[in-house]
Amino acid sequence: MRFALLLVGAWLMGPNVHADTAEAAAGSESWAVHVQATNVTQWHPAFRSPYSGSNSLAANGRTEETTDLTLYAGVRPWRGAELWINPEVDQGFGLSNTVGAAGFPSGEAYKIGANTPYLRLPRAFLRQTVPLGERTEPVQGSANQLAGVKETDSVVLTIGKLSVTDLFDTNSYAHDPRSDFLNWSVIDAGVLDYAADPWGFTYGGAAEVSRGPWTLRGGVFQLSPIPNGKITAIDFSQTMWIGEGEHRSTWQEHPGKIKLLVFLDRARMASYADATRLAEGSGSVPDVSLVRKRSSRAGVSINAEQEVLTDLGAFVRAGVNDGRKEAYEFTEINRSGSAGFVLKGERWGRAEDAVGLAGTVNGLSRAARDYFSAGGIGILIGDGRLNYAAEQIVEATYTVRCNAHLSLSADYQSIHHPAYNRDRGPVSVYSLRAHAEF
After folding, report:
1. Beta-carbon neighbour count of residue 431 at 10 Å?
2. 8 Å CB contact between 411 and 182
3. Are 219 and 207 in contact (CB under 8 A)?
4. Would you tell me how many other CB atoms lie within 10 Å of the CB of residue 278?
5. Phi (first) and psi of residue 221, to 5 degrees
6. 201 in helix, strand or coil?
């Protein structure tokens, strides 16, 4: 019922999506409004669990759903600039209140849930493009992008409230839980501990320079005042620094990209070893909140995508971060590798449909293993004890494009060793997703 009401609201707003007549005739929008609505319903049956902790995935089987309705309103205040705001209504919970697996099974689930819909503003930002040459290419209008043309060589500056992953670690085949895969460690680099509030957004700015096949981008973003905490004011006393280099190429006339990303978080954060030693001395359970001090945490990841055939694309990500420190914002993953493919439905007469298959393997550092084995609790995981094994996830998804505005997806995930625990699972997670956009 809730999603039906959201779809009606989105449909009513759909006819208002346009640019002014003169600009539209020229193929360039001076303003635009878009709407999206997404519902994800997930459930899993009971699974083996000889014990559990406060951050364990519930072993008796659960069903949960999330719904969001987003308005994308943008205007071109002056040449080369775009100003966007994205008010959003959210409702729902992730499975077990979004805990229990480092590679959590829904990118549409938030770390704070609610039974009743509530309004928030995840994005409000300004983008300025400065041309460095005369070559241009057409840009199709979409959410947070006005239709028109853009210079292939340019400097782009972005500042405001947004998600770090709007700009960094993007991938054509695995990045959007509203249209492709769902698992956190498939749609993003699992090791990327990016600045974010519990919904995935923060304040900051970034610059990118594009020349020919190369793009270099860098940014600085505000970290939460405490790990995984709410951001209630602008305060850059704790920050994330991030940089990424991208190279575009063709292979047998098919486009591809490869990206190298590095980041550094600077904030009050704990050493797992300090927390474990303190607990051993007092005979208690380790607690990272007792040993936090000003420190840094770095990481690096590689992200590649390649169109193999006109209807088939593949991707791969791999990375590692400083596993001696606690996860600050994202999830407890210290090393990760993922790969997969997406096949369009041209071969069976459904050209706009898509089938995807991906796998990911996540791992913990030795210091993190010792902390969780002693009963420590993290952002997403903590079973009270730990019989360590790498977390292994396979995800398969099929999306049916019903028309230009509506798509429906069925998704299956098999999670072996959830939260790195050989004693629990495996877990089968089934999902249905409905996505509408105007």
Report:
1. 24
2. yes
3. yes
4. 16
5. -135, 155
6. coil
- Considering the entire predicted model, what is its pTM? 0.91
Beta strand 239-251 with 350-363 is unpaired
Q: What is the 8-class DSSP label of residue 384?
A: S
Among candidate residues 193, 105, 110, the one with its CA nearest the CA of residue 393: 105
Query: CB neighbours (10 Å) of residue 422?
Result: 12
Please list, in sequence order, all residues whose beta carbon lies within 8 angstroms of the beta carbon of residue 332, skipping any fewer than 6 positions away.
102, 364, 368, 372, 378, 379, 380, 381
Say which residues have a Cβ less than 8 Å from residue 283's Cβ, sequence separation at least 6.
none
Low-confidence ranges of the chain (pLDDT < 70): 1-26
Amino acid identity, position 431? S
Angle at 75 between CA 435 and CA 85, to 5 degrees: 50
Helix count and strand count (H, E) for the chain = 5, 18
| Cβ atoms of residues 56 and 96 within 8 Å | yes
Closest C-alpha among 104, 23, 65, 69 to residue 427: 104
* Helical (H) or strand (E) element with 172: none
Helix-, strand-, coil-residue percentages of the chain, each rounded to 5: 15, 50, 35
The alpha carbon of residue 225 and the mean position of all alpha carbons in its chain are separated, in whole angstroms, by 21
Q: For residues 355 and 378, what is the distance between their CA atoms, to the nearest angstrom? A: 34
Cβ–Cβ < 8 Å for 25, 12: no
- State residue 330's pLDDT score: 96
Fold of 2-437: Porin (2.40.160)
Q: How remote is the C-alpha of 321 from its chain's centroid?
A: 17
Q: Which amino acid is at 298?
A: A
Q: What H or E segment, with its residue span, contains residue 47?
A: none
Domain ranges of the chain: 2-437
Count of residues making up the chain: 438
**Cis amide leading into 122 (omega within 30):** no
Residue 279, pLDDT score: 96
Beta strands in 280-421 (DSSP E): 293-309, 312-321, 335-345, 350-363, 391-401, 406-416
Tokens encoding 412: 């299956």
**Cα 13 to Cα 275: distance, rounded to the nearest angstrom:** 52
**The predicted structure's pLDDT at residue 3:** 45
Q: pLDDT (tens digit, 9 = 90+) per residue, 43-54? A: 999 999 999 999
Distance, CA of 356 to CA of 433 (rounded, Å)? 14
Task: Kindly tell me the sign of the dihedral angle through the C-alpha atoms of 248, 249, 253, 255.
Answer: negative
How much is the pLDDT for 27? 74
Q: DSSP secondary-structure letter at 368?
A: H
Per-residue confidence (pLDDT) for residue 4, from 0 to 100 = 45
Measured from the Cβ of residue 60, the count of other Cβ atoms closer than 10 Å reads 10
Residues ≥6 apart with Cβ < 8 Å to 377? 53, 54, 55, 287
